[in-house]
């Protein structure tokens, strides 16, 4: 049926600031919805408070209100704009909860605003644990034994009857916020109290803990004619008890029999219809006991989610875009697949590859935090990799995390054999970020795959795959030199050049040169939604070393769309982390769109499934690959770009600047040499001296002894910081020599290439941030911000105001003068 003509203006609600459990996946879904609905001629009104998102760029919506996501602010926007409809399902839990508030308060009815995509009753049936369980009962689907309650006393009564452990799930929350697994009465009291506090309706679900069961997730879409498609099946490698956002996941599911998959598929469609999601997408989680084949429905989101973003990128099926168009009346069979241009959206994606997602945790920022993983999300981002086998995809994903993992690294363990085995058994049972490495260590120590599976509750199929990786490791350690056949096998199973090099006492560059001599390069294949059955028009590519594989890259650009200014490659920012959110993705997307408009063919490289930059139609060509020197050079070998832009992706691509330059790659923008003059603290001090600018007493040190000598000369307190850091990582204010010594002991070894910079710390100083842009000659200042906190609080952690409010005109003039001098001196472009 055609789109609705009675709707003219549609309001969208964003997800607000990034929080643990709600990251930039909703910027991706909201941006996709804005673009899709404007494409259909609707006027879009957006309310969101996050300045780092693509969604709040003025080009995305017709009207953008940068306002708090509160009931009062939303009412004011509705009163002013009078939208015909509100689409609540694309801004995460924040948008969903605010939409329910608007509906329950009668404001939508008062202003004649229709909820589309999912009405209020649907949202409540899915999000209210009591109503959800009743709906599953009506659908003939089993859920875990549970009780919905509004007091700690009720929880204690339930525990007396059922025993421990118990799972606490607050209603209407995101990422397991306020919930957890209670093993004792003390846990139960604390968690139920926290859950009641975090739930908007002051209700929690307490249910039997089906810990250790296998967990699966299905992404499902439905249109107004009751057509339903299953976009993707996702299997959690970690067993039940670990939030799906905290688990390593695989798509499509690997260990389900066809009978089990069909049973789960039928159950998901029954659940979708019973809950009543009229149009759009949702994800449904299932748990299965492999011993009894008992299957229960865990929960359901009547909206797009982080898993939806993952499923979109894993399949090439644009869930948010299709969901937005279904909400305005289209049916699945009426919407075409942009990638093939032939298949309709009613065709379920078929995958001839395997996808692995690994969350990224930044516990090193919070050394006192509990690193045990449970039903409450603690990860700050995630990476995704695509390959032809699980082994290759797993190792690509590990190196995509940018945490120094070139593969299944070895952990520190006790020295004695017996002690190591006991330690391994304990660690295998403990859900934590490093458990994947513990599995590898256990197999190296001689534990059988069955034993490892028993203690970890990770399915034996995954353990067997990891065991094959370990066996190839051991083979490489036992042979004198790297032969061609062994190199091919190692690359086919996902080993990086750097990882292979360490087994043969070589350098990474030696392995790369050997590959070139033997013409061992990755083949690139398309994510085309149809396993190669139809031609793909949008190049969305991944690499594989499948021996004998030919590239299935079909088309780059239609003849009429050929770009005339050459190819530009943009390196993205990789996974979200503390200190690096979506601001760099915003920059990369703006750069891609601008360069495309200027006539360049734009190539994007990134590995983050949550971001807008990894949407298939943001650039002319997308490589979903790790941002390592090896992977980027292989793409450059294939593409031969006219220019590579590093400076929009944050610290991740900047770290590759010098190696890429040494490899002869054409880098555009500020030169790596000039970047180094700023990032290297010693060289930047020389820049300041050359320009005769005022600065505090400072010095650099290449050794701990030299650092103490410099400190005595300057005097305490000192601001100590290494070179090349992001988000203030490893920066410290030290007040005496003892503190300085302890601080240095936590750093990598100091040397002339990585010196320590010591600045006299000025207490109670006012800190200023200046943002400027330069073409190499002219400098334009975009804004001057004053920090509310005194210097000593990282600028990313300080409240700021723009324009500055306590700085006099003569000081502002001097700030502008010095900014222009610095920009010209280091040749900023």
Give a description of the structure.
The chain has 829 residues and is of the alpha/beta class. The protein is 36% helix and 19% strand. The strands form six sheets. The protein has a seven-stranded antiparallel sheet with strand order 14-13-10-11-12-15-16, with helices on both faces. A seven-stranded mixed sheet has the order 17-18-21-20-19-22-23, with helices on both faces. α15 (449-456) packs across α16. The chain is globular.
Please outline what is shown here.
With 829 residues, the protein is α/β, with parallel strands linked by helices.
Helix content: 25-40%
Number of strands: 30
Classification by helices and strands: alpha/beta
Shape from CA axes?
globular
State the end-to-end distance: 51 Å
Give me the Rg, rounded: 27 Å
Strand content: 15-25%
Put simply, the count of helices is 28
Most strands sheet: 7 strands, antiparallel
Unreliable segments of 5+ consecutive residues: none
The strand order across the widest sheet is 14-13-10-11-12-15-16
Mean pLDDT: 90
Topology:
Blueprint: E1 9-13, H1 25-39, E2 43-48, E3 63-66, H2 71-81, E4 85-87, H3 92-104, H4 107-110, E5 114-115, H5 120-127, H6 129-138, E6 146-149, H7 152-162, E7 166-170, E8 180-182, H8 185-198, E9 204-208, E10 214-222, E11 228-236, E12 249-251, H9 258-275, E13 280-289, E14 294-301, H10 306-315, H11 319-327, E15 354-360, E16 381-387, H12 390-400, H13 417-429, H14 435-444, H15 449-456, H16 460-478, H17 484-492, H18 497-503, H19 508-517, E17 523-526, E18 540-544, E19 567-571, H20 583-597, E20 601-606, E21 621-624, H21 629-639, E22 643-645, H22 651-654, H23 657-662, E23 667-668, H24 672-679, H25 681-690, E24 698-701, H26 704-714, E25 718-722, E26 732-734, H27 737-745, E27 756-760, E28 768-774, E29 779-787, E30 800-801, H28 809-825
Parallel strand pairs: 1-2, 1-4, 2-3, 4-5, 18-21, 19-20, 19-22, 20-21, 22-23
Antiparallel strand pairs: 6-9, 7-8, 7-9, 10-11, 10-13, 11-12, 12-15, 13-14, 15-16, 17-18, 24-27, 25-26, 25-27, 28-29, 29-30
